[in-house]
Design goal:
The structure is a single chain. The chain is α+β, with helices and mostly antiparallel strands. It has 6 helices and 16 strands. Strand 5, helix 3 and strand 6 form a beta-alpha-beta unit. The longest helix has 15 residues.
């Protein structure tokens, strides 16, 4: 089982991969370059984890539009951009969570306006569908993936990556089957799903374990150039 590093907020490029979960899945160093089946397994593990929608439970703070527009990294735990509330409203619409606004007067004014405070709780449906993932987070599976083809598996260098590290870039094709909740979620986003997509995955060699580890991935449409996310440098 792979260990997941859970991000603090939903990625701005939220689409087919609503929440990218970076994993520490790994393959033996000597097997990565030669076996498409091994490559498929590790990339598919990353895709599987990327289909877990993380939902914060409990008290959260949402930046006001002024603060949200400033950009930059958010380092405070439990604080999200204003746009994130729209994603939570989608989950509320399909019956997974309830959102209750805490009176604004209880909070100070920061960055030209008040931060908004909310209590997020699971509904009965949400409790049945969700699994605990981390303190104050639960996960809901949006879809199932299966890598069907590896079209490239080669050594990779990039000026934005440490030059002393050993990376590999993997390109492939995978099948996608949404869960019932996934179908409702993407319908609420007015997003049409396809049965197949392309994936670009970055692997890194760990010299201490002599294994390659999954770092990040991007997905895209087979009939379009480019990628819909930009996690891989």
């Amino acid at each position: 089982m792979c260990h997941s590093k859970l991000p603090k907020s939903i990625a701005s490029s939220m689409a087919l991969l609503p929440l990218l979960v970076l994993t520490a899945c790994s393959l033996p160093y000597g097997r990565v370059a030669g076996s498409d089946s091994d490559i498929s397994a590790i990339v598919n593990e990353g895709l599987t984890n990327s289909q877990v929608m993380l939902i914060p439970i409990g008290t959260i703070q949402v930046l006001n539009p002024f603060e949200s527009a400033l950009g930059g990294a958010i380092t405070e735990e439990g604080v999200y951009r204003h746009q994130y509330l729209q994603e939570l409203r989608l989950l509320e619409r399909i019956g997974l969570i309830q959102i209750r606004e805490v009176p604004q007067r209880a909070l100070g004014f920061l960055g030209g306006g008040a931060r908004f405070k909310y209590e997020v709780s699971l509904t009965d449906r949400g409790r049945k569908a969700a699994e605990p993932k981390k303190e104050n987070f639960v996960g809901v599976v949006l879809g199932r993936t299966q890598v069907t083809k590896v079209v490239k598996n080669e050594k990779y260098t990039n000026p934005n990556l440490p030059q002393s590290e050993d990376y590999r870039l993997v390109l492939g094709v995978y099948n996608y089957t949404p869960t019932d909740i996934g179908k409702e979620y993407f319908a609420a986003r007015n997003q049409q799903l396809q049965s197949q997509y392309k994936v670009k995955a970055l692997l890194k060699h760990n010299p201490f374990t002599s294994r390659y580890e999954f770092v990040a991935l991007d997905w895209g449409y087979l009939d379009k150039d480019g990628w819909e996310t930009h996690q891989v440098p």
